[in-house]
Amino acid sequence: MTHKAVDSINSGQEKTMSTSEEISEAGAVLQSIVKAVSKINNMNIQIATAAEEQAAVSDSISDNIHSISNLSQGAVARVDKNLQAAQQLQTMSEDLSQHISVFK
Fold first, then answer.
1. Is the model's pTM score more than 0.85?
2. Alpha carbon 18 to chain centroid, angstroms
3. What are the pLDDT digits (tens) for 27-83?
4. What is the 3-class SS of 31-91, one letter each residue?
C-alpha cells in the first residue's frame, strides 16, 4: 500500500512538472503574440500618420494648383487687354498715317 502511494505521489509530481513546463511554454507563446500585436499596432499608427501626411500634402498641392489656375486666368485676361491695346494702337497708327499722308 505504501508503495502504491509513493508511485501515485511520484506520478502526480511528474504530471505537475509537465503541466508547469507546458504553462511556461504557453506563457512564452502568449508573450510572443503580445509583442507581434504591439508591432502591428505600431505599424498601423505609422501607416495612419503617413496617410494623414499624404492627405495634407495632397491638400497643399490642390491649393497650389488652384492658385496657379487663378494666376493663369489673370494672365490670360491681361494678355487679352494687351492685345486689344495693341489693336487700338495699330488702328490709331493707321489713322495717323492717313492723316499725315495728306500733308505729303
1. no
2. 51
3. 999 999 999 999 999 999 999 999 999 999 999 999 999 999 999 999 999 999 999
4. HHHHHHHHHHHHHHHHHHHHHHHHHHHHHHHHHHHHHHHHHHHHHHHHHHHHHHHHHHHHH
